[in-house]
């Protein structure tokens, strides 16, 4: 192949990779910029294991280069064979013991961190402190529900948590297996349909400020055509602001709509959408009946459908054809054709659903 062309292709490939991968280094998304106690612990383990691997590679490379140079065939010594070391007990002991030591160096902090991260005693205590924040996470194709059992409130897509303290999670799925992951804050954990997984995370206040107040959350288990679009956002707040948010959610009543267009939207909503979506954060329906995201604070959300920028245009796009935004979602096909006028009215109504 033409060498210039090949170089050019390589160059553009690396250029593309640089552009794409640069997006991974953001403080709201990157595991390499740990944003809390759990992420810190896991990051230290990553550094430790990477250092050990690099050390092994470097030592092996040095020995390899040394051997190649030292024992290469020289002029006049073509028939000379270096000293043979097969069956040397000394060498065999050395190269058995070194990996064992390296594995021990890796194992001790890993096992200790694993036990620390698995400690969810505080959340399972029957008489748990009411300040212990517990969130029931329920994953669905392709959205997230966050229920605060101690406060009696439910929200979706935007997870709100207090900063600088342990937040405990109960993880389940309602349809297929998903995986709950906030990359900057801690490793992922599966949400299963048949059992509950539990873990805790800490959201550091300084890191939250650095991330612009919002962390990105992801589904990390292939769960269908829109798996890669099953995002959520996390808004950590200082404790006092978090308490204020909880109170507002607890006291939120069914919205009083005055705008005539929004009123029209409310009527459409109450006819076609209310069977699945709720508009108050206190939702007493059993979990099986909650088949779509709770929209109580839809107007306060960070994104439309978890992925699109939060504005009226995108909401209309979503209502017009949900499948074009999230292929295979369960809302597509559940209501008949909406006219542009109806879409405008619904948009007005949905954007008026605010708690803050
Ligand atoms: Cu849910 Cu991937």
TrEMBL record:
Compartments where located: Cell membrane
Topology in the lipid bilayer: Multi-pass membrane protein
Its EC number(s): 7.1.1.9
Cytochrome oxidase subunit II transmembrane region profile domain span: 23-121
Secreted found in the keyword field: no
Primary role: Subunits I and II form the functional core of the enzyme complex. Electrons originating in cytochrome c are transferred via heme a and Cu(A) to the binuclear center formed by heme a3 and Cu(B).
Protein name per UniProt: Cytochrome c oxidase subunit 2
Originating species: Geobacillus kaustophilus (strain HTA426)
């Amino acid at each position: 192949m033409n060498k210039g062309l090949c170089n050019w292709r390589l160059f553009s490939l690396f250029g593309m990779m640089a552009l794409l991968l640069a997006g991974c280094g953001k403080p709201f998304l990157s595991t390499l910029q740990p944003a809390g106690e759990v992420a810190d612990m896991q990051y230290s383990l990553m550094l430790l294991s990477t250092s050990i691997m690099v050390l092994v590679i470097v030592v092996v490379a040095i020995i390899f280069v040394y051997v190649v140079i030292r024992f290469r065939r020289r002029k006049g010594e073509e028939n000379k064979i270096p000293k043979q070391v097969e069956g040397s007990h000394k060498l065999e002991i050395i190269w058995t013991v070194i990996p064992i030591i390296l594995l021990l160096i890796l194992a001790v902090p890993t096992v200790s961190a694993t036990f620390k991260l698995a400690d969810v005693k505080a959340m399972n205590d029957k008489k748990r402190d009411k300040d212990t924040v517990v969130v029931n996470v329920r994953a669905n194709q392709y959205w997230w529900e966050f229920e605060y059992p101690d406060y009696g409130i439910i929200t979706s897509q935007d997870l709100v948590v207090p900063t600088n303290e342990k937040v405990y999670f109960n993880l389940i799925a309602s349809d297929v297996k998903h995986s709950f992951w906030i990359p900057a804050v801690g490793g992922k954990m599966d949400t299963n349909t048949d059992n509950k997984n539990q873990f805790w995370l800490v959201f550091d206040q300084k890191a939250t400020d650095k991330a612009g107040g919002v962390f990105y959350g992801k589904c990390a288990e292939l769960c269908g055509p829109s798996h890669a679009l099953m995002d959520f956002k996390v808004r950590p707040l200082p404790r006092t602001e978090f308490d204020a948010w909880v109170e507002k959610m607890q006291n939120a009543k069914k919205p009083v709509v005055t705008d005539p267009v929004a009123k029209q939207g409310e009527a459409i909503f109450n006819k076609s959408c209310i069977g699945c979506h709720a508009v108050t954060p206190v939702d007493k329906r059993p979990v099986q009946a909650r088949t779509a995201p709770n929209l109580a604070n839809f107007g306060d959300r960070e994104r439309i459908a978890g992925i699109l920028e939060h504005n009226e245009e995108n909401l209309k796009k979503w209502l017009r054809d949900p499948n074009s935004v999230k292929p295979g979602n369960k809302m597509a096909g559940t209501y008949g054709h909406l006219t542009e006028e109806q879409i405008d009215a619904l948009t007005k109504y949905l954007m008026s659903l605010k708690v803050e």
